[in-house]
Protein: Extracellular serine-rich protein
Organism: Parathielavia appendiculata
Amino acid sequence: MLAQSILLLAAAAFPAVTAAPALQYREPTKTSTSPRTTHSVVAGRGGLRFDPENIVAEVGSIVEFHFTPLNHSVVEAAFDSPCVPKDATSFFSGFFPVPRPADGSAVQSGEVFQIEVRDDKPIWFYCAQNTGRHCQSGMVGVVNQRFDGDKTLAVFRSKAAAVQGASVVQAQVQGGWRGANPNPQSGF
């Protein structure tokens, strides 16, 4: 009798399991847990140019702009209208004034500007510094240029050289992220 009472108490304390618990299935998210590729572009290294000026980047990649002396920016443009923002939502880094060291050593801004590549369409860009007419002098570039037609970086540069007026900027920094340079001593 005592054994039966203990069994009944144990059964009450630990209810019987009649079936295995149902498995929960969740759809995977679209977010990747793998690290993103970051493509570094230096504005002003070696003169009025972006280095590199033609970037091939997968969707989801980051393009990070580093700025050297004296004062550069990066603005998104349309292929047919260089030196002018593509539209009201075009990215604009703002200007990055960087003093030139007296000893001539390499230096860059303590901040960078980053954009995310959101699709595989070409992204045309330029420097809007008007002192020296940087855009018109060839300081232009592209992310994901197509190689099957006449919309090339060389043609874009030629169109920029033909622009008579001043380069145009957005009213504010937008379309990307401005933040601390992750490696300001990198020798750019």
Summary: The longest helix spans residues 2-13. The chain is about 10% helix and 25% strand. The longest strand covers residues 38-43. Helices lie at 2-13, 153-161.
